[in-house]
Amino acid sequence: MDLRALLRRLTGPTAAAVLSAALLAALFMLSAAAQHSALFGHWYSALLAVSVAGLAALSVLIAVNVYRMLRQARERVLGSRLTLRLVLLFVLLTVLPLGLVYFISVQFLHRGIDSWFDVRIEQALDDALLLGRASLEAIKEERVRRLQEMSAGLELVSSAEAAAAALDDLREQGGFTEATLLTADGRFIASSNLYEESLIPARPTEAVLSRLRQGQVYANLEPTTDGGLELRIVVPVYSLDMKRPLRLLQVLEPLPLRYSKLGESVQSAFKEYEKLVYLRGPLKLSFVLTLTLVTLIAGLIAAWAAIFSARRLTAPLRDLAEGTRAVAAGDYDKQLPAAGGDELGILVQSFNEMTRRIREAQQAARRSQREAEAQRAYLETVLAHLSSGVLSFSAQGVLRTLNAGVQQILGVDLAPAVGRRLEALAGDHPQLEPLWRTIEAAVAAGRREWQAEVGLFGSRGRQIIMCRGTRIAGRGGHVVVFDDVTALIQAQRDAAWREVARRLAHEIKNPLTPIQLSAERIRHKYLQKLPEEDRPALDRATRTIAEQVEAMKSMVNAFSNYAQLKHLQPEPTDLNRLVQDVVELYRDPRRGPRLELALDADLPEVPVDRGRLRQVLHNLLINARDALGDGGGAIEVGTRRVEENGRGYAELWVADDGPGFPAEVMDRLFEPYVTTKAKGNGLGLAIVKKITEEHGGLLWARNREAGGACVSLRLPLAPRDADNTRQPGAAEAPREEKRA
Amino acid sequence: MPAWKSVKPLLLAVLLAGAPAPAARAAGFEVLAVQPRVHAGRVVVHAAMDLDLSEAAERALVSGIPLDILLEFRLCRRRPLWWDQTLGRWTLRARLSYHALSGLYLVRLGEGARLHSFATQRAALKYLGTVDRISFPLPADAPAGSAYRLDLRVRLDREALPLPLRPIAYTAAAWRLDSHWTEWTFAPSSAG
């Protein structure tokens, strides 16, 4: 056991209880000693010392406990102030009546002891003593006279033997117990004793001898060993012979029994009263001391009991306060010790029940949370492995969650944008603006489910995004799931065109040959047989049929070429060189439009299928030349490198200063069979668009402000070249244009 | 106020309990001389003591309270380089009382001994202060030829006082009459 524990045990309630019990026992014995001195009288001082020591120990014990309480109150330990308050209350309730009883008891004690004494009794006892002395004095004088007379017989006795015989006679005659003849200096001459065992006679003291040598008589009453009184009378014995030395006769005579008893009674009463008078002060002091000890011990025991009771009382409250704090801090495992069956006990029981239920509820909540977490993790795993992009928005349009598919599809890391509103997202990622606008419109419309196709042109070129949105029931908000359907749509479109081409070939092209052959046979068989004047008509008719059939064949073949799915074979290509090669084919110094080149010398190589891009250039140049007609004019072919949304592009444009596109066809410029030319088949720009899209590029057309048309296309650069792009802003954003 | 008057001496007694006795104390017991010798297997002691009662003790005596005076003897064997060995202890109880009827002071030296009467207190104390030929048996295990030491102390037996007087007797200086131990070394062979 360490020192602190030992100290705690020594100052604990058990030690105080034992000490209190010992003190009470000591007090009881002290009281018994005061009342019956024969019983505990010899323990009185020890009991007193033990009581005082115990009192001091109890005081120290209480002082230590009070110090602890004060320290705890200073440290604001839970329940300490209430304990202190209760202790003060209990102590006050104890000390006040105890002090009152003490002071009243002291007064009673004082007056009670004083009432024992009375001046008249004291005077009466003095008088009785004087009377006794006077009576005994009379007896004494009478005995002295008698002894003086009897001593005359010894005047003639000279020898010791004769003296002894004379003393025997004298003792018997006088009724003395002892008769002794002595010299003046106290030496024995002869003696006679009633009791033979008393061989040595009682010798007079030097004072008595001195008094007798002066010729006086000594006579006095002396207490005997057995408690009686005897008369000691010493008289001088003079001799007739003047030369003989003085001799002394001493006799011891017991006082008559009646006188002896009366004398002893007076002596005893006087002695006891005198003792009582003398002990009045000490008696009061002793009683007050005992009363003080009793009061102090009772007070201290009460104080200790107050401390103990207050602690016992406040312990459940302290526990409750600690428990409440623990619960407030989130510790729901707190269980308080039982505090009995009273109201506090019920309160503690209720607290324990409450914490138990909270703990169970918390455990249930944790279980639910774990399950929700597991579900969430499961969903996140599923979402993370979904090829579709999933975005969730709050009811206020704030982006809350997204999965990995979003970045895979959009090519943009939107994780930092979580928590931002849709409006802000449009500003952060302008290339995704159509997507945000679509979602924003759907959210604002509050539709439960919606679906939309959104076209994007970003770092991955042109993308068709299929969005499906659902409003989240209950909490509000929306979930948007989208897929990149660019490839799918392209595939569907290709398949559709292939089917059209197949049908055209089957339904149109196949009958053309018999038509053409039939027309030629008719011409061959009937041209010579017809009259001269009819021949030109047949010739024109059959020739027209053949020409139209041929035209139709060309048209079908062109369409087949358009619809034919060809795999691109991209390879790094110097776009400027390709442009120069193609443009040179159309340069005619004598007639035709003026061809101008505006090529970006820093343009990196572009991964394109050279043959198909050459076809694009041919189609655009033919369109431009046809638009200018024979009136001259200028065709500008340019390239440049642009940077948009962190991605580099090679931009190619072909512009002319002709009449421009009519407004009525601007919306359908890139659809098949839309043309403003008399002889055009309407597939030129459609093929350009198709090839551009096959390269992941973007195509648009516009009318120039200065006049004329301009068709532009952007082709994405290879990633390593994209890293070396120019600073943003180099690109001129097309306006009022038709994009495809 | 009576209560305060009663409590005051108690407080004074408590305060004085730890206080040293006054330096100029006239009354008290003192051993003047001790003369031990061994004779016929017994230690015979002659001693002279100066016994002087304090005023408080005198007042108690004439008020009928007997005073028990203890003469404590301690016989030790002297041992060089070591503590002395105690061979025996003896106590002689003398009772001094006052007989009011006769006006005599009575002395009884030992239990059941003869009662001696004295007209004055001085005479009684003088008688008590002269111990003549008191003897004690020499313990059987006392080694012959050793040097002995006899210690004597005379004190008032406070435990024999009436109960109410004891707290005061233990705490008041007027009741501190005890003498110190007086030692007397002797050799049995040379003495007797």
Structure description:
The complex is a heterodimer of chains A (740) and B (192). Chain A has helices spanning 3-10, 13-35, 37-40, 44-74, 80-116, 119-150, 160-174, 206-213, 257-278, 280-328, 343-384, 404-410, 422-428, 433-445, 486-526, 535-563, 575-586, 610-628, 684-694, 719-722; strands at residues 178-183, 188-193, 218-223, 229-237, 247-254, 389-393, 399-402, 449-458, 461-471, 478-484, 571-573, 594-598, 606-608, 634-644, 647-656, 698-703, 709-716, 737-739. Chain A is an alpha+beta fold and 740 residues long. Chain A folds into five domains: 3-116 and 279-325; 135-273, PAS domain (Beta-Lactamase), CATH 3.30.450; 386-484, 2-Layer Sandwich (Beta-Lactamase), CATH 3.30.450; 490-563; 571-739, 2-Layer Sandwich (Heat Shock Protein 90), CATH 3.30.565. In chain A, the strands form four sheets. Chain A has a six-stranded mixed sheet with strand order 12-14-15-17-16-18. Chain A has a five-stranded antiparallel sheet with strand order 2-1-5-4-3, sandwiched between helices. Residues 722-740 of chain A have low confidence and may be disordered. Chain B is of the alpha+beta class and 192 residues long. Chain B has one domain (28-191). Chain B is 22% helix and 42% strand. Chain B has five helices and nine strands; from the N terminus they run H-E-E-H-E-E-E-E-H-E-E-H-E-H. Chain B has helices spanning 2-17, 55-62, 121-128, 166-171, 188-191; strands at residues 28-39, 42-52, 67-77, 85-99, 104-109, 115-118, 130-137, 148-156, 182-186. In chain B, the strands form two sheets. Chain B has a six-stranded antiparallel sheet. A three-stranded antiparallel sheet of chain B has the order 1-2-7. The interface between A and B is large, with 50 and 38 residues.
